[in-house]
Amino acid sequence: MIRLLLPASLLAFACMAFSAAGPSQAPPARDARVKAFLDAHKDSWHDLNVPYVDGQTLHDLIVKNKYTRALEIGTSTGHSGIWIAWALSKTGGKLTTIEIDEGRHKQALANFREAGVADYIDARLGNAHDIVPALDGPFDFVFSDADKDWYTKYLNAVWPKLTPGGCFTAHNVSMRISGISEFLDALNRLPNARTTIDRASSSGISITYKTQ
After folding, report:
1. Fold exhibited by the domain 27-210
2. Is the bond into 133 cis (omega within 30 degrees of 0)?
3. What is the mean pLDDT of residues 128-139?
4. How confident is the model at residue 27 (pLDDT cuts 50, 70, 90)?
């Protein structure tokens, strides 16, 4: 075995250089890249995407509760998915997201790559009506933002797969849209659940924790 002996000063310098270039620098660099992407596109998200403030809410819920197994029903072109995946990059988790429209799906994939969060996302193209009930789970965070008439069915399909302490969120619950009233009634009937409505935007996000 050959051992290379370095002067203490040179060894210290080498360690500092490795630290500066090593994995410890990855999270700050990633955070800066994601934030720059989101800020640059802040006012350009359309096509069924969430507002910036709602994306921030989703991100903060995941980081605060250290969630790692997330499901998004309704990718659109990826705005909310980027916020969710960014949070999961901090907790060591991954997002499964589902989109039925091929054009939106392809645009979301491009946005995930550009934002630097593609490694934290399993993006699936298909009908959530079929995919969601077939998912194994478990999940500790769910965001529903697809067809509102199916919100209650998504809830019924996923709730048994949500871990205690997990969170089921849904978008547009402050709006008078077909299916929302039925969904909110279903939330109120859930056992072992606690629901609040975040009204940071006019859309509204229901936030339901599974208590046990």
Report:
1. Rossmann fold (3.40.50)
2. no
3. 97
4. confident
